[in-house]
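Aim 2, interim progress: modelling of the magnesium ion-bound target.
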Amino acid sequence: MTATDATATTRAGSDIERYDMFIDGAWRAASDGATFDSINPFDTEPWAKVPSATAADIDEAVAAARRAFDEGPWSQSTPLQRATLLRKFGDLIRDNADELARIQVLENGKLIREVAGQTLALANHCYFFAGVAESPTGETLASSVPNMQVFTVREPIGVIAAITPWNSPLALLLWKLCPALAAGNTVVIKPSEITPVSTLVLAKIAQDAGFPDGVINVVTGAGPAGAALAAHPGVDKIAFTGSTAVGKKIAVTAAERLARVSLELGGKSPNIVFPDADLPNAVNGVISGIFAATGQTCMAGSRVLVHTDIYQQFAEALAERTSQIKLGNPLDPDTEMGTVACRAQFDKVLHYIEVAKEDGAKLATGGARPTDPELSRGLFVQPTVFTDVTNDMRIAREEVFGPVAVVIEFTDEDDAVRIANDTSFGLAAGVWTRDVARAHRMVKRLRAGSVWVNNYRKTNYVAPFGGFKESGLGRENGFHAIEEYTEVKTVWIDTGNTITDPFNPRA
Ligand code: NAI
Ligand code: MG
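Predicted structure of the complex, ligand included:
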């Protein structure tokens, strides 16, 4: 039996699958029975029904996570026990990777070509954090206070709310879930309303791996469910990936009770091409930065900065290769670009194309829905390149989250740095040059959480990821991630047993 068989029931006479939520180890409907549909963006047909969580359901999920944290076997778990569960979780993700990948494609239209490998690699993510669970984290301090042994321990924060987006639903969830569990927290997940099913199936896999009841809970619903979860007094930390607008709201909500928060938000990342770059390679790198995943990644290299000397030549090569991108069924491994994920996103992308034209950007290729009748039902937008863009245009300042590249001209290194950093965001940047010294100068000057030199959009579980400025707070992945899910406790042990002056601690 596959994980989907266990969570979904198909009604007679309908091919719509029905899923339950996962609260305290049990699969259940919403308390008022309400549901919403998951829609496949390739044919715009609903294919699954998912519960729409009520405030009462969210209360129960948080209470279950609280009990599991305070009282259950998890509260007494050893690092080895948590590591063993994470390894088993990884094994089962690997065994079910094909199915998990297929479900994500049905939900968001991303290419199986990317999602298959990305999903399989999530097993390694679990294995890495299994190792982290058993890695030493505290420090013995070189204190000069007489007769005192001083050390720190890292302890789990408590109940974590993981509020996740639709663009890489499982990867961005595991970036939170693995370190949270490794450190001994419990979790209530609120997946995006666009991609709830993959998270529910993943929760079944976690249950099969043997995580105790209440350690992992999933409540499904739209923005208000996320807001209710973030505002819940039983939640100790909110880990969020999504829009900067919602991230700011969550930070305000968290501030009310000083809940911990980590935010991985939007971007308008510069991908900077110097004349000394390997130009064919740079064209491919710029394409991968903005058209892979239909541009729906937080790290999209959506501002292409090109040096004056090669501006014309590079823009033409980019537009030419872009016009050849093969749109199609995201489940076909030959397809190079799939749909955008949902109707709201589709409308947003087409709106921004109009904004760019109004502001005087020059359309070099794309700019509309494709005309191919086979694609007419899907939420396809042609990969689009605008040239003659200046950095003050809205299309250069606001996140589109779609397949729209803007090409901006720069004159020298200083000019490139000025334009690149002239943004409210700071998630990522790319630099294309064969000059090693220039590469290092640029890395130092770019205000962004990740800088790729002669490559783009690489991530790995060992490598911290997160944003400067309005692109977020905190870092995911690597050893840094564990810091986001722990509190530091400082311990003072008196080895002399001599309180000489009760009114002066320095005595
Ligand atoms: P969103 O930020 O509204 O949604 C992300 C998650 O937050 C979802 O689970 C959603 O249900 C939840 N949410 C929505 N409102 C909330 C609230 N008030 N309190 C708590 N949780 C809430 O993103 P959406 O609407 O899906 O996409 C809008 C734009 O956000 C995109 O066009 C893109 O620019 C950006 N985005 C960025 C992502 C990233 O990876 N940084 C991922 C997805 C979207
Ligand atoms: Mg939204």
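The mean pLDDT is 96. The two ends are 68 Å apart (CA to CA).
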